[in-house]
Design brief:
binds adenosine-5'-diphosphate; 11 helices; binds magnesium ion; globular; alpha/beta; Rossmann fold; four-stranded antiparallel sheet
């Protein structure tokens, strides 16, 4: 198996903080690799070392076999990082920004214009092409940023929290873009705070916490150690809640949680020891509730949150560090 990125014992220290504390990663070429962790986990610091923007204090990192310290120029030629190399000029239009970057990267006038047109179209920005970037929405800006980072098709693209703060529609657009980029052969290392995002896009995921990898595997492996998700139910009548809890506990064998809302019940679906998917288990539970005469007004099936992942892996919720 070809590795796009390989790190061994990678370390970066800021004063007392071991931001990255002995990270081993093996990222297969041609895949999306997810690095999942809360604020302050060390994601950006790790990415910056891989992109040669910060020197490691210990360990080694290679990109397609090239050492990020000794062969930094080789690495730089192969990687691109959103929001770093590609800084957008707010006063220029989307089209002008891409065109300028294409020219800076050495494209001739004509090919720069063609590349710009193609990217604007692929990223749904053709209509906004002639508008100044300062008038763009968060989602449009993020898309333009990613477009700028692939003007020259990189072997490895680092996407550092590409959808944080985006609305669901923009998030979906970014996900589609990532799928297209990886289909064209680029290896994508994506950092995220959302398990759902890593699950949708990544072939493998490393969960990091306080600079250390605390779990690694396919999304399926991760979810089977964490639980497949939760069923959230809203009842018609509060008086039926104790019955609903009993039925859910019996059918799902799950931990049932209730909070201050007297109509709401949440049950974790365990992913272990069953071949039946979360949706099937949930529909079975709904049928049992109906059979017991319990009226359900609303229902949703959610994937485990980052907090649930961390609870399962560390017995602690994701400890978010206050940004310095
Ligand atoms: N330039 C820096 N100087 C001092 N501390 C830093 C610096 N960059 C990051 N840190 C600290 O390193 C830790 C990891 O930060 P970071 O890599 O930005 O995490 P993430 O991207 O996962 O949110 C945090 O505790 C952060 O405060
Ligand atoms: Mg970060």
């Amino acid at each position: 198996m070809d590795l796009a990125i390989e790190t061994a014992g990678l370390v970066k220290v800021f004063g007392e903080t071991r931001a990255v504390d002995g990270v081993d990663l093996a990222v297969p070429a041609g895949t999306v690799y997810g690095v999942l962790g809360p604020n302050g986990a060390g994601k950006t610091t790790a990415v910056r070392m891989l992109a040669t923007l910060t020197r490691p204090d210990g360990g080694t990192a290679r990109v397609f076999g090239h050492d990020v310290v000794r062969e930094a120029a080789e690495v730089r030629r192969r990687v691109s990082l959103t929001g770093q190399y590609a800084s957008l000029d707010e006063d220029l239009t989307g089209q002008e920004n891409l065109n300028l970057l294409a020219r800076l990267l050495g494209h001739r006038k004509r090919t720069a214009r063609q590349r710009t047109e193609r990217l604007l179209e692929a990223f749904g920005l053709t209509d906004a092409a002639g508008r100044q970037v300062k008038g763009y929405s968060g989602g449009m800006r993020r898309r333009l940023d990613i477009a700028a980072s692939i003007i020259r098709t990189p072997d490895v693209l680092f996407l550092d929290e590409p959808t944080t703060g985006l609305d669901p529609r923009s998030r979906n657009q970014v996900w589609d873009i990532v799928r297209v980029i990886v289909a064209q052969g680029t290896t994508v290392l994506l950092t995220t705070q959302y398990l759902e995002e890593a699950d949708r896009l990544a072939s493998r995921i490393a969960v990091i916490d306080h600079g250390k990898v605390i779990a690694e595997g396919t999304p399926g492996e991760l979810k089977s150690s964490v639980g497949a998700g939760s069923v959230h139910i809203r009842l018609r009548e509060a008086a039926q809640r104790p019955d609903a809890e009993r039925v859910l506990a019996a059918t799902l064998g799950a931990t049932v949680q209730t909070g201050s809302d007297p109509l709401a019940v949440t049950a974790r679906i365990s992913g272990e020891g069953t071949e039946i998917g979360a949706a099937e288990q949930a529909s079975h539970a709904l049928a049992e509730l109906a059979r017991a005469g319990i009226t359900v007004d609303d229902f949703s099936l959610g994937q485990p949150s980052l907090d649930e992942v961390f609870l399962a892996l560390t017995d602690k919720p994701a400890a978010e560090e206050v940004a310095a």
